[in-house]
Amino acid sequence: MKTIKDVARLAGVSPATVSRFLNSSDMVNAQTRQRIQSAIEELDYRPNASARALVTKSTQTIGVVISELADPFFAKMAHSIEQTAKKLNRKVLISTGSLNADKEFKAVQSLVAQRCDAIVVNSKAMSDEVLVDLAKNIPGFVLINKYIEAIRHRCVWFDNVKGGQLMAEHALQRGHRDIVVVTTSEKVHDASRRLKGIRSALSHAGVRLPMSQVLHVSPDYAGGQQAIKLLQQQGAAFSMLLCYNDAMAAGAIAELLDAGYKIPQDVSIIGFDDVLLAQYCVPKLTTIKYPIEVMAAKATELALQLSQNQQMQGEGYCYSPFLVNRESVYTR
């Protein structure tokens, strides 16, 4: 196994100079850096991350807390963070919170204990007070998919209210009035904000949305199937479904097709997120674009900047939704 002394010998420098190079020191001139880099490549030398961490107090690692890896949305988010980190020569350590406040908090603490330089947190359950306290004690803390005024410069978030409004407005423009909302049974802030946007747009158009037309099911494919079964049991009349995410929309489509409905002629459906599934289900799903890849990349860069004590000001980073019009909405 090659050591730092082998690299130094081949490059014609001292081990201390190689060490400074590995720690990104500006004290190493360009010509020497090139010799060291060539020696590293020739010897296929791999620095010991644990040993470097003891010296530099840094593991060159970005910690990430997400709800669950199985969800396509969070998989996209994690992939974007990993790709951004790779470009910045950082590693990524991922932990899941499982939509539980205590598990989310312990996930953050675990990442801190493992000396992650920066931490990107997607919290669905922790209170604003707890998140603010974490931000005060973790220099590289960034909150993604949520806005908190007290730590706004650490937030990368999405306008979920506007997303809900776009769904409802598109349904209304296509002539739909018998609208059912299929949302998650989990108590998460993005669901309530999307519903707020839907209600706002419908109210503005003079269309009521009674609670009986808002179904709360699991936020996945099976939840979409369950929603259709519930509507059939109730004998409800509906021509449009507005779904909390694309997986629920795909499940609803499958159940409706099995029951003999034509999509979108009998029932139109709008999803949310625009994950890969939306492009390949039949019919292709009209949905709201959630630019999570771009947001995750920005959150990663921001977390690293904050971890290096760069002063960040401003109102954070808010991203806007837009409708992706495909084949699942029919004009009545």
Structure description:
- With 332 residues, the protein is α/β, with parallel strands linked by helices.
- The protein has 3 domains: 4-47, lambda repressor-like DNA-binding domains (434 Repressor (Amino-terminal Domain)), CATH 1.10.260.40; 61-158 and 292-319, Response regulator (Rossmann fold, 3-Layer(aba) Sandwich), CATH 3.40.50.2300; 160-290, Response regulator (Rossmann fold).
- It is 47% helix and 16% strand.
- The chain contains 13 helices and 12 strands.
- It has helices at 4-11, 15-22, 30-43, 49-56, 72-87, 101-113, 128-137, 160-173, 189-204, 221-234, 246-258, 276-280, 292-307; strands at residues 61-66, 91-96, 118-121, 141-144, 155-158, 179-184, 214-217, 240-243, 268-273, 286-289, 317-319, 322-324.
- The strands form 2 sheets. The chain has a 6-stranded parallel β-sheet with strand order 2-1-3-4-5-11, with helices on both faces.
- Helix 12 links the parallel strand 9 (268-273) and strand 10 (286-289).
- The longest helix is centred in the N-terminal third of the chain and has 16 residues, at 72-87.
- It comes from Alteromonas aestuariivivens.
- InterPro entries: HTH_LacI (IPR000843), Lambda_DNA-bd_dom_sf (IPR010982), Peripla_BP/Lac1_sug-bd_dom (IPR001761), Peripla_BP_I (IPR028082).
- Pfam families: LacI, Peripla_BP_1.
CATH superfamily of the largest domain: Response regulator
Overall number of domains: 3
- Mean pLDDT across every amino acid position: 91
What integer value in Å does the Rg equal? Answer: 24 Å
Topology pattern, helix = H, strand = E? HHHHEHEHEHEEHEHEHEHEHEHEE
Contiguous uncertain segments of 5+ residues: none
The first-level CATH class of the largest domain is given as Alpha Beta
Judged by helices, strands and strand pairing, the structural class is: alpha/beta
Distance between the termini: 71 Å
Major sheet description:
6 strands, parallel
Q: Assign the CATH topology of the largest domain.
A: Rossmann fold
Number of helices: 13
Number of strands: 12
Strand order of the largest sheet: 2-1-3-4-5-11
Q: What would you call the shape?
A: elongated
What percentage of residues falls in helices of 4 or more residues?
Answer: 40-55%
Strand content: 15-25%
- In the CATH hierarchy, the architecture of the largest domain is 3-Layer(aba) Sandwich
